[in-house]
Design goal:
Chains A, B: It is an enzyme of class 2 (transferase). The structure is a homodimer. Chain A is of the alpha/beta class. Helices cover 36% and strands 16% of the residues of chain A. Chain A has 2 domains: 14-252, Aspartate Aminotransferase, domain 2, CATH 3.40.640.10; 254-354, Aspartate Aminotransferase, domain 1 (Alpha-Beta Complex). Chain A has helices spanning 14-25, 42-59, 73-85, 99-109, 221-226, 236-252, 255-275, 300-312, 337-354, and strands spanning 3-4, 65-70, 91-96, 113-119, 141-144, 146-147, 152-153, 164-167, 184-188, 199-204, 280-281, 292-296, 315-316, 327-330.
Chain lengths: 355, 355
């Protein structure tokens, strides 16, 4: 039994893998593989329609927003957001809460002026800056809602007077949000939505087409919105598996149900980190992420030993990112409470061994 | 028994589908799905390394070229090529041999000046223009080697005195080429390389970094070359299935062997088109494609009836593109001669019925 705590691409439900494998042999009893069908076939058009409908239903997306399935991950959105929203010579505001937030700002700065309204780089991104002012002449304000590497998360949409853009790659679909609070939400799929290879964009239609830039069609959100995510050949299989995963989430009871589970999972693990004298969390208490739990031990020897124990217990993917060290348990939607318990048991076992 | 003549995403070998399905359940006996593993895991890094090595071996790619696996298909390359190669205010030359060639030129024209050196739009792209002059001050010359919709193909690399860029989406890996004749080759994978979701780029390193433009990192070929196609999370599964397909091609004997088969397949079908009084080819004889065979009948009634007969015989995906009409049989690497024979048999059957 493996418990996959990997940071992404990450665990998806077993039943999704079963159906996803079957479709590679025979999709919808067509006698054809999902990998060899035309993206213009009725069967696949239905997949795109259902995937979009599931996103709209699960997140209660308002009608005046487009739901797009693109390629290139969040990294491509770092460039597409300013291409679409930042006029030549204009300014965009960014909150710097980690390496990815910082990369997003850096890419935007190639296309215009960027103002970093606040940064937590002074303490290795262990906290979320709470006090900052977004200039009213900014074309938009960008932030990263969950910082995968550091284990911090922003649950409330900041109140700002400019269009609000958020990178939700690692917490989309894990908790209820009010989509209307945002103007553009993007997320690489490979955490809670599906496998690598597809990117979700939810964008309010009326913010588009105002940057005055000449944008190649492939980078213009409007091309994709007009074509129902079929402007060019879409990543067929990644969208199909996302649909299966969204069906699973809906059958489970939707976002509210998974959010309750995620809260319990995170609390169970943080409680053990706070109780067990051999471990301590790295993120500021009030900014702790429900998706990525970062923690360390006192010495490199202990950490090496615990990593070995974890491996023996089938706990994989818990080594921390090099910029934080220690451990990072990514506990996305599909990771079960029993996997959390297996990790907690290993932590208790370590304590027993040395107390 | 289905015979899949679809234009793409298209047929791949049955054994590739079997292995591809197995990996969705259990990849490399890891107990994990290929869909849930980290792209930074050793196992997946090995996949990228092997996929690149297979492309290099099969196409004999010179050492001073990078082999990249990107996202966004050929449509994204329509923008990335001028971003990387066309200086501000510079000029690029394009050959217009069809809708896709024309779209490539249109996207480039958003970033600079484009000169169309010749076009076959006067005869609905049924032929390849042979006489044209590429201006010596062009930053590059771009053409499309196989025109999927019209069934025409350019087998010889044009001799030009500027960097040569080719969209080989629908004939890459189907015939021997001399990579050194080109400076940049790109191809959406979903014909002869693998499933949708990954794009192959083969680029001569020393043509990069000269456009003088500030390019977002995700659109700069150098970012991907430096990072071994791991600048950002790659389309894991699409690359994996491409590797399986390239292994199949290598085991078969490589490009020379598949090229011989492709020549026989195309000749078998064209011979029947030319012999059978009910059918006629649409493309200029000397420009006929080996990948996409376009043909028509005399009346819409005949075409409807043949389409029905084809369906009964398990021949799918042969309806022609709306801009040509009639039929298009896409006969990529994985389509077998026995599928060609099944189509030829149906054509003979139709002839018997009405002669």
């Amino acid at each position: 039994m493996k418990h996959n705590f990997g940071a992404g691409p990450c665990i998806l439900p077993k039943e999704v893998f079963q159906e996803a494998a079957q479709a590679v042999i025979d999709f919808n009893n067509s006698g054809l593989s999902i990998l060899e069908i035309s993206h213009r076939s009725k069967d696949f058009e239905q997949v795109v329609i259902e995937t979009e409908a599931l996103v709209r239903e699960l997140l209660a997306v308002p009608a005046d927003y487009s739901v797009l399935f693109l390629q290139g991950g969040a990294s491509q959105q770092f460039a597409m957001v300013p291409m679409n929203l930042l006029p030549e010579g204009g300014k965009a505001a960014y909150l710097d809460t980690g390496v990815w937030a910082s990369k997003a700002a850096k890419e935007a700065s190639k296309l215009g002026n960027v103002e970093i309204v606040a940064s937590s780089s002074d303490k290795n991104y262990t906290y979320i800056p709470k006090v900052f002012t977004v200039p009213t002449d900014a074309a938009y304000f960008h932030y990263t809602s969950n910082n995968t590497i550091y284990g911090t998360e922003i649950f409330e949409a900041p109140k700002v007077n400019v269009p609000l853009v958020v990178d939700m790659s690692s917490d989309i679909l894990s908790r209820t949000i009010n989509v209307a609070d945002y103007d553009l939400i993007y997320a690489g799929a490979q955490k809670n939505m599906g496998p690598a290879g597809v990117t979700l964009v939810i964008v309010k239609n009326d913010i588009l087409g105002k940057s005055g830039r000449t944008i190649p069609a492939i980078f213009d959100y409007r091309s994709h919105a007009l074509a129902g995510s079929m402007y060019n050949t879409p990543p067929v299989y990644s969208i199909y598996v996302s649909m299966l995963n969204l069906r699973w989430l809906k059958a489970k009871g939707g976002i509210e149900v998974i959010e309750r589970e995620n809260i319990i999972k995170a609390r169970t693990l943080y409680d053990e980190i706070d109780r067990n004298p051999f471990f301590r969390g790295t993120a500021n208490l009030e900014d702790r992420s429900r998706m990525n739990v970062s923690f360390v031990m006192d010495t490199a020897e202990q950490e090496a030993e615990f990593l070995e124990l974890a491996k023996e217990r089938g706990l994989i993917g818990i080594k921390g990112h090099r910029s934080v060290g220690g451990f990072r348990a990514s506990i996305y939607n599909a990771l079960t409470l029993s996997s959390i318990n297996a990790l907690v048991d290993a932590m208790k076992e370590f304590e027993e061994r040395y107390k």
